[in-house]
Amino acid sequence: MANKASEAEIKAALEQLPGWEHEDDGIEKAFEFDDFKQAWAFMEKVAAEAEAMDHHPEWTNVYNKVLIRLSTHDAGGLTDRDFKLAQKVEAAV
Ligand code: H2B
User: Fold this and answer.
1) CA separation for the pair 64, 26 (Å, rounded)
2) pTM score
3) Ligand 1: residues within 6 Å at CB?
């Protein structure tokens, strides 16, 4: 799936990604940790995976909360790269 995912592909991919929601042209999930130190450690792991994939999240962090949004800007929507990174994010929790 190198191109933009279809609605059916998005639905199938999200079945493997509990808590992720399809919003506009991306997928999003909010994560909550005990404190900032844990949130930051999680962000470091995700940042390393993102850099290795050359695929980067849009995200915000406020103290112990991290909101992640994934979208493939080059394709103008969701692609397999977003679902792969989402799986890496889940593994980093
Ligand atoms: N990250 C995301 N989320 N979407 C992209 O389209 C994207 C990216 N493109 N990281 C990459 C980098 C591109 O800009 C570089 C030039 O490969």
Assistant:
1) 23
2) 0.95
3) 54-56, 71-74
Helix axes 36-53, 80-92, angle to 10 degrees: 140
Distance CA 12, CA 33 (A): 28
pLDDT in tens, the chain (93 residues): 568 999 999 999 999 999 999 999 999 999 999 999 999 999 999 999 999 999 999 999 999 999 999 999 999 999 999 999 999 999 999
Buried b (16+ CB within 10 A) or exposed e, 53-70: eebebebebeeeebebbb
Q: Whose CA is nearest to atom 8 of ligand 1?
A: 55
